Amino acid sequence: MNQHPEQIRDEIKAAFEASRESPGDPYKEGEIIWHLVANPEGRASIHDTFKGKRRLARFLRGIEAKFSVCFSLKDWESLKSLDQIQERLVYLLNTPRSSLASIRNILEAPRPDVQAVVVLILSAPVTAILVKLFGVVGLAVLIVPAAVIAKLFQMDRNWKNFYRAIEATIRANSELQSDAGRPVGARRTGARES
Q: Is 78 helix (H, G, I), strand (E, B) or coil?
């Protein structure tokens, strides 16, 4: 994707405005991430709150979807300024292998099976006590852990499908770029062309 740096910057700003709690409020470009929430209080307002993490995810995933790139986990923690985001995005656009490595790390991450087991183990004694004390009403407690586990698996599936789609786009774009230098009708071979 060959875009002018100012176009990229404008796209980042558009994704930022679409993701923030108070669109149109003034913000500092050096601390753009913190301004995803109203009344930012620095790093803690994003990385230490559910609201901040949701806004950050909406913002960065919007950029990932728009440009077919994948930020690394380190990027999610360290990016804070508009310049940093733009610089990293340009790097990822020029080196698809980096995005593919991040996607591989995401897709190979453990499924939420461990979380599901922990929820079941922790809820089993509570469920047993409630069933003993309240009879059938206590069985309703079984619905909560089951719903939590189902939601964990759904979120995991959606998240991985999102990155599989980006991976497919990156691979398709890489194929197009590598085919662009080859004469029409030329066959691909494992050997280097001289």
A: helix
87 and 133 fall within a common domain: no
Largest Cα–Cα distance in the chain?
Answer: 80
Confidence of residue 115 (pLDDT cuts 50, 70, 90): low
Please provide residue 60's backbone torsions phi and psi, each rounded to the nearest 5 degrees: -70, -35
Residues 60 and 125 in one domain: no
pLDDT band at residue 140, thresholds of 50, 70 and 90? low
* pTM for the model: 0.73
Domain match, 137 and 75 both: no
CA angle 97–113–68, rounded 5-degree value: 25
Judge whether residue 142 has pLDDT over 70: no
Residue 98 is part of which domain span?
5-109
User: Helix, strand, or coil here: 43?
Assistant: strand
Judgement on whether residues 172 and 194 belong to the same structural domain of the protein: yes
